[in-house]
Amino acid sequence: MPAAVPSPIVEAVALALALCGCSSTPLDSNAQTAGGGNDAGANNQGGAGSGLGGASSTPVSAASLVLLYNPPTNWSATALAFDPERVGELWVTLRRFPSNAACNNDPTQQTGCSALIGEVALVTQATSPMPSMALKRDGNAWHFMRRPTSIAFGENGNLATCGEARTDNYNDDPEDYSGPVLWSSDPAIFGAIPKADQNGTHIDMLHETPFCMGIAHDFDNAYFAFNGQLGAIDRSDFKAPHVVGGDDHSDGEVRRFIEGELLRVPEVPSHLALDRALRKLYIADTGHQRIVRLAVDTGSAGADIPALDPIAVHVQMDGAVLEEWVPPGVLRLPSGVALAGDNLLVTDNATSKLWWFDSAGHALGSLDTGLPEGSLSGVSLGPDGKIYLSDLRTGGAYRVESL
Fold first, then answer.
1. CA–CA–CA angle 304, 309, 312 (5° rounding)
2. Average pLDDT, the chain
3. Any residues with CB less than 8 A from the CB of 370 and at least 6 apart, and which?
4. pLDDT-derived band of residue 21, with 50, 70 and 90 as boundaries?
5. Is 144 left (phi over 0), alpha (psi -120 to 50) or beta?
6. Helix/strand/coil (H, E, C) string of 46-67?
7. Per-residue pLDDT at 323 exceeds 70
8. CA 2 to CA 403: how far, in whole Å?
9. % of the chain with per-residue pLDDT over 90
10. Where are the beta strands (DSSP E) in 165-297?
């Protein structure tokens, strides 16, 4: 049966149906969740991942959700986004759960290194009744896709990811060396086996955003990223990509906004969504239990900030306008954010509820997905107008099929 919508107003239900294109018909109350699958990507070193696809979508009756694939064992799904170049192709970022084992520059202390590697679950025909999934891993994912939290597509065939790490080298490296990575979505490039002179299949990287918790595309090859170490927003512009697997970052630019205003919660992504018309960036300020908006075109260049990449522009932006859009008291651990017209969809990781807010930040309603607390992370609006969710606890991804 459909999950209850706590909001008493009828308009909230109508809005939810309009946002996701959902049917109001409940799914079969006897339907079962898909099984746990297997760790098909464990031995996939840099090639196109082993497929888990072919099975039909599986309804999850308690929440009126559809599970899109059998999640690989012991993986967590942190974010998801549709590739605008390939209709119905959904990318889901996966990472291992944290490990207490060391990954240091000592052959006797590297048992935890494999837990740092991230992958992508690439779901084709995600909007159909018969989606198919394959796992894809970069040839040097240990560095370029370390514990990913987020993913965002540009409009030029490229995308960016970033991860929750202080450094993307050995963990006893003293430099805080981590940040967003630029990729091509071309299936002949991303996740392909690197050539002898290639360091993975990335096409650019900047290393000024440790503990990156969320990312959103601006334009061309520029992306906003949540700097979890400093509680800031970094605008990383890769400019022209380097060759596949290269290392020339010299044309990159980093501008830092609102340092100290945000608060990371370890292991819970803090996603971002950019309203291009208003030039406002919506931020899940997870640690402060609120949603804030940054006017991204405000502020002026101040002092230089430290940079580990040899880039010409690395500057603090002073005086940028930040507003509290959903104050504390409504959400406990806001994580996923996605625009749906003039409204914003937000996942609350603490309660596993999906919320929607109007253009003024007023709550219009919420949906209890029925998933265990701590499940929800990313949210995305699909090309079919339906809502898609990622699951931190199981590594799965869902389509909201009915309310």
1. 50
2. 88
3. 3, 60, 62, 63, 65, 352
4. very low
5. alpha
6. CCCCCECCCCCCEEEHHHCEEE
7. yes
8. 5
9. 83
10. 181-184, 204-205, 212-217, 222-227, 232-237, 253-257, 272-275, 280-285, 290-295
Please, are residues 365 and 7 in contact by the beta-carbon 8 Å criterion?
yes
CATH of region 10-400, choose from 3.90.950.10, 2.120.10.30, 1.10.630.10, 3.40.50.2300: 2.120.10.30
In the chain, count H helices and then E strands. Answer: 2, 27
| Distance set, CA 86 to CA 82, 122, 153, 187 (Å) | 8, 11, 12, 11
Q: Cβ distance 377 to 78 under 8 Å?
A: yes
CA 63 to each of CA 77, 80, 394: distance values in angstroms, whole numbers, following the listed order: 18, 19, 15
One-letter amino acid identity for 59? P
Tokens of 317: 């932006």
What are the b/e assignments for 354-365, b being 16+ CB within 10 Å?
A: bbbbeeebebbb
How far, CA to CA in Å, does 22 sit from each of 174, 400, 403? 50, 7, 7
- 240 by DSSP, 3-state: which? coil
Q: Is 238 within 8 Å of 222 (Cβ atoms)?
A: yes
| CA 161 – CA 50 distance, rounded (Å) | 21
In this predicted model, which residue has the larger pLDDT, 21 or 45? 21
Which ranges of 209-304 does DSSP label H, i.e. alpha helix?
none
Structural contact between residues 367 and 354, judged by C-beta atoms closer than 8 angstroms:
yes
pLDDT tens digits, one per residue of 276-315: 999 999 999 999 999 999 999 999 999 999 999 999 999 9
Residue type for 359, please?
S
Instruction: Give the domain ranges of the chain.
Output: 10-400
SS3 state at 16: helix
Q: How confident is the model at residue 45 (pLDDT cuts 50, 70, 90)?
A: very low
pLDDT tens, 326-358? Answer: 999 999 999 999 999 999 999 999 999 999 999
**Is the model's pLDDT at 394 over the cut of 80?**
yes
Given a cut of 50, is residue 85 above it in pLDDT? yes
Work out whether strand 253-257 and strand 313-318 pair parallel, antiparallel, or are unpaired. Answer: parallel
